[in-house]
Amino acid sequence: MLDQVTTATRLLLIEDDAGVAEMYGAQLRSSGFSVDIAATGELGLHMALTHPPALIYLDLGLPEMTGLEVLQHLRAQPATATVPVVILTNFSEPELIEQARTLGARDFLIKAHTTPARLSAATQHWLKER
Amino acid sequence: MSEAPSTVSAGTVPPSDPHEVMMTLVRTAAETLGADRCTLTSLDRHSFRVEASYDMAGESDITGREFALDYLPDQPLLRDAVASGHITTGGSLTAGGRFDPTLHDVLAPMQRTAVVPLPLGDTIGALLILSRRADKDFNESELQQLQQFAVPAVLALRNMRLVEEVQAAQRRGLETLTMISRHVASSDEPADFFARMSETVAALVNAERAAFWRISGESLAPQSGAHGFSPDVLSSARLPLPDPSSHTPLGQLLFEGAAIRYEAGHNPTHSELPKFLEVMRTRDMLAVPWRTAAGPIGLLAAYDSKDGFTDQDEWIVRLAARASALVWQGYEAQRRVRQLQTAERQRLESHADRMAQLEQQKTEFLQVASHELRTPITLVVGYLSMLEEGALGELAEPAQKVLPLMSARMRQMNMLVDRMLIASRLEQGSRGRGPRDADVGAVMREVLQALEGSPLHAERVVVRNQDTSHIAANPEDVRTVLSNLVSNALKYSAVDRPVTVTVTRRDDVVAIAVRDEGMGIEPAELAKLFRPFTRLEPARAAGIDGTGLGLYLARSIAMAQGGDIVAESTVGEGSTFTLTLPAPDAVNGHA
Q1: Is the pLDDT of residue B13 over 60?
Q2: Does residue B431 belong to the interface with chain A, where contact is any CB pair within 8 Å?
Q3: Pick from B192, B180, B160: which is nearest to B22 by CA?
């Protein structure tokens, strides 16, 4: 694999807080990624199916369908089952971490402890690992 | 010759010992009247008892013995004396008619007999018998003198009976009290006691039935367990409570302490009683007050006596009622205490529930608030970092200068929120769930990785992993605590001094010791380190300047995992903070 990922790499960010989504989105775009933002779980699933991303950042506290339910659905569809998912949330309950890991999430990040720059660096890391 | 009776009567008036008196009487009679024997007997239709006997020759003392007398009609001397009520004389008792064969030798030598019948109550209840060996009649003067002995003899016999009655009454009284004490001890409930007591009262006065009636509201109702009554009779029986000023027999019983004696057909004025008694076909009844010093509780009644209720019976039932009132007072006191205890317990329970509820609300609030705070923090920290990195363009000098300040304070805020979340989770007890196996090596790597690039120079951490690599604890928790201890150690020692982390296993416990070569901590301060977070906590424990939780929380986390943190320090040399956690069972013990 190349050290630098191509500028066409698509990321999907499923996050209902517009301000936070915009902040992370801006940084990721300026790092050269293409970023799709979905404010609900349903929308996120739809986007993942129609335009499969290379990596999905998933919030847990979503309106209506929860983040964990979205994760289950992603895993259930062959088209999306292999896309790495990283949980990006402000919940830190150990039970949730455990559940997310069991459902196949690659990692668990706390937004309050993750600056946009750190998210960008982490993205590079996972895409390399993939 | 008239002193003899007066000597005797002077001796009988105060009833010292009736038996002694009677013995003196018969001896005096025999001696005074020149007889060989004098005997005083009490008498009924079937037998007689020798109360006192004196024999000149000192032979055959039959005092105290009882003999059959069913042959009275065949014994003319005695028969005539009893029938006429006058002194009767005759020859030998054995010669005159039938007599108890066992007395033959005693009676045979006596050739002359005089019998004085003694009235006790309405009938002849005793005989004074004088006899002589010599065949010499009793003359008129002797008979008159003999008659003089009748009165003192009767008195002595009456006294004897009185003494016997008193003794019997005392015995019955003591037995009753003993029974009461036994009933109290063996009764689990007041109802049990009164049931047993009713039975005892009936037995004491030879009655078929007995019941305690208690005042309840405006009427008197029988206590359950009344002896000899069927439950359905008891459940419907009620007596209206009379007005205290009324002078009906029931009113007098309850408020003036009078007893009631009822006989079917004899008491037309007891208007409130007959209905119940008629329904029950009660022949007779004895009722006494059942009361305490404070007032009436009700009444105690015995029904259907064997031979009629006597004054003695009334006395014993009153005694039983008084003692039962004391017992009842005891039960009432117990009941009040139990009520108070129940009320108190309920008050405490509802207080405890309220406290638990408040505690829960507080914890939930803490949890929700701290989680919610993370949203604005995310945004501010995120953009601040971007500003510092220059990703949002160049800032004027003054603006640039304040950025690090803002970042530091946001880090502080972030940390406070973390602590609040941890604290709320500890309270909820949700820590301790999740995985229970941690790889120490992996955890340490994570800790050091997170500290990479920080101004603390994490490269001076040396890890000595002595003989174990696993702990039976939640990896996140272990990481949180170790992170705290290691960053504290780095912070409070010079950049050229190492921080040593040693992992050892002692029996069931894994110990991770974090040692620094800093300034050390005063013993007084050391004790304060683990206090819960207040504004007064020392700087190292608070970790205010940015590297972790309070030591109080770190220790709470360790304890929730079944472990602990201890601190040792030498001023001028350094400190060691040791985290202990349970070792996994057998198999996984070694690296």
Answers
A1: no
A2: yes
A3: B160
Taking contacts as CB-CB distances below 8 angstroms, the residues of chain A near B379 are 19-20, 23
DSSP B425: H
B382 contacts A116? CB cut-off 8 A:
yes
Give the Cα separation of B295 and B185 in Å (integer).
Answer: 26
pLDDT of residue B1: 42
| CB distance B210 to B227 below 8 Å | yes
Q: How many CB atoms sit inside 10 A of residue B575's CB? A: 24
- The residue-averaged pLDDT of A101-126 equals 90
Cα–Cα distance measured from residue A116 to residue A111, given in angstroms and rounded to the nearest whole number: 9
Q: Which residues of B touch A92 (CB under 8 A)?
A: 421
Whether the predicted pLDDT of B532 surpasses 70: no
Cα–Cα distance between B375 and B373 in angstroms, integer?
Answer: 5
Could you tell me if B367 and A92 are in contact, meaning their C-beta atoms sit under 8 angstroms apart?
Answer: no
State yes or no: pLDDT of B56 exceeds 80.
yes
Predicted confidence at residue B12, as pLDDT, reads 47
ipTM of the complex: 0.89
Identify whether the C-beta of residue A57 lies closer than 8 Å to the C-beta of residue A93: no
Helix (H, G, I), strand (E, B) or coil at B277: helix
Query: B377 — contact with chain A (CB < 8 Å)?
Result: yes
Distance CA(B471)–CA(B319), nearest Å, equals 78
CA distance A68 to chain B (A): 17
Q: Give A109 to chain B, closest Cα distance, Å.
A: 12
**Model confidence at B528, in pLDDT bands (50, 70, 90)?**
confident
| pLDDT at residue B586 tops 80 | no
B480 touches chain A (CB under 8 A): no
Tell me what the pLDDT averaged over chain B comes to: 83
How big is chain A, counted in residues? 130
Sign of CA dihedral A63, A67, A68, A73: positive
Distance of CA B287 to the CA centre of its chain: 31
Residues in chain A closer than 8 A to B377 (CB atoms): 112
A13 touches chain B (CB under 8 A): no
* Spatial separation of the C-alpha atoms in residues B60 and B38, rounded to whole Å: 12
Window from A30-44, B192-206, B299-313, B575-589 with minimum mean pLDDT: B575-589
Burial string for B74-104 (b: 16+ CB within 10 Å, else e) reads ebbbbbbbbeeeebbbbebbbebbebbeeee
B421 and chain A: CB distance < 8 Å anywhere? yes
Contact check, Cβ <8 Å, A98/B434: yes
Q: What is the pLDDT of residues B513-523, one digit of tens each?
A: 999 998 888 88
| Residue B568 one-letter amino acid | E
The token pair at B245 is 């000023």
Q: What is the pLDDT of residues B160-217, one digit of tens each?
A: 888 888 888 888 889 888 888 888 888 888 888 999 999 999 998 999 999 999 998 8
Using CA atoms of B123, B125, B127, B128 in order, give the dihedral in degrees to the nearest 10. Answer: -100
B455: how many CB neighbours lie within 10 A of its CB?
10
Give the whole-angstrom CA distance, residue B560 versus residue A4. Answer: 45
Calculate mean pLDDT across residues B463-479: 79
